[in-house]
Specification:
Number of strands: 13
CATH architecture of the largest domain: Alpha-Beta Complex
CATH topology of the largest domain: Phosphoribosyl-aminoimidazole Synthetase, Chain A, domain 2
Distance between the termini: 19 Å
CATH class of the largest domain: Alpha Beta
Largest sheet: 7 strands, mixed
């Protein structure tokens, strides 16, 4: 099998075949497009999500914190605590593990998230560092936003720029091979994209304004996230390529290596659907967060408009990050 997420049909089959218990106190349960589960505890509810970091060598500790806290933020609630598992190959040093934990500590401090525990192990089972985290959040009962809440007629927004995570990963891990297409200043800027990976602020702010759905844009890029939202919500969408916010640096890399930026891992950007997109854009801008309306939720089918041609969006496959890394190795 090739590296990347499991095919969604295979994954759904495995999940459905093995979900033997369905409890009433689980208000939202994980599934295709639904990255968090929400458990009711009376007046409050607990939101939980888990994800590993496998595709990055540099900044892996930082990414591990933010991709997990971002999932919690996509429900519109505050992340409270994190559990960290580190599986390190035998080639690792104590300093390697110390560096990762320092990164995790620094980023959790910024988000006011406590490290609750975890597990650290040196193992022959991996050939590079694997970091897997579980984050829990809390909110008032019934207030967590589900991915499956998108409604026909909603405006579709994305925050900041797409591909921030993917661009940061490849420039940090393959700087020497990108010097022929990027300037020194551009390399420095791209490495700095890691500073904008968190979507906690816009997630909590948007939820308070009354949005219908949110989804952190991770593997599969914006088209993968759109497909997952539509699948979970049983709706369609129509979006426009020329409205997608992508930096010139990302465009340079993607054009050079024939990579689709719309299917490039994009933590740092939140996908939001809401009845009044212009109102939310203004609200976010007032808090120094740029947001862009890229299309609308429709009744059926996912459509990308590119140069006036319409193309139906297919289920997400392998993220372009893995394709790009193979070309750079």
């Amino acid at each position: 099998m090739k590296a990347g997420k499991l095919n969604w049909e295979d994954l759904k089959t495995i999940i459905d075949e093995n979900r033997k218990v369905v409890r009433e106190d689980v208000r939202i349960r994980s599934g295709i497009g639904e990255d968090c589960s929400v458990v009711n505890f009376g007046d409050m509810e607990c939101v939980m999500s888990t994800d590993p970091i496998t595709g990055a060598s540099v900044n892996s500790g930082k990414l591990a914190v933010h991709i997990n806290c971002n999932d919690i933020a996509s429900c519109g609630v505050e992340p409270v605590g994190i559990l960290v598992t580190i599986l390190a190959p035998e080639s690792s040093s104590l300093e390697d593990i110390r560096r990762i934990m320092e990164e995790i500590s620094e980023e959790t401090e910024k988000l006011n998230v406590e490290i609750l525990g975890g597990h650290t192990e040196i193992t022959r089972a991996v050939n590079k560092m694997v970091i897997s985290c579980t984050v829990i959040g809390k909110g008032k009962s019934g207030e967590a936003v589900a991915t499956s809440g998108a409604k026909e007629g909603d405006d579709i927004l994305v925050t900041k720029h797409l591909c921030l995570e993917g661009t940061s990963i490849v420039v940090n891990d393959y700087e020497d091979k990108l010097k022929n297409i990027l300037t020194t200043e551009e390399i420095k800027e791209a490495k700095g994209y890691i500073k904008y990976i968190s979507v906690v602020k816009e997630g909590i702010l948007s939820a308070k304004s009354g949005v219908n759905s949110m989804h952190d844009i991770t593997e599969g890029g914006v088209l993968g996230a759109l497909w997952e939202v539509a699948k979970a919500s049983k709706v369609g969408f129509k979006v426009y390529k020329n409205k997608m916010p992508i930096t010139k640096i990302t465009e340079k890399i993607c054009n050079k290596y024939a990579v689709d930026p719309l299917r490039f891992i994009s933590s740092g950007s939140m996908l939001i659907t809401t009845k009044d997109g212009n109102k939310l854009v203004k609200l976010l801008k007032s808090q120094n967060i740029n947001a862009y309306i890229i299309g609308k939720i429709t009744r059926e089918k996912g459509i990308l408009v590119c140069d006036e041609f319409e193309k139906e969006v297919v289920p997400p496959k392998r993220d372009e990050l893995f394709v790009l890394e193979e070309k750079l190795k």
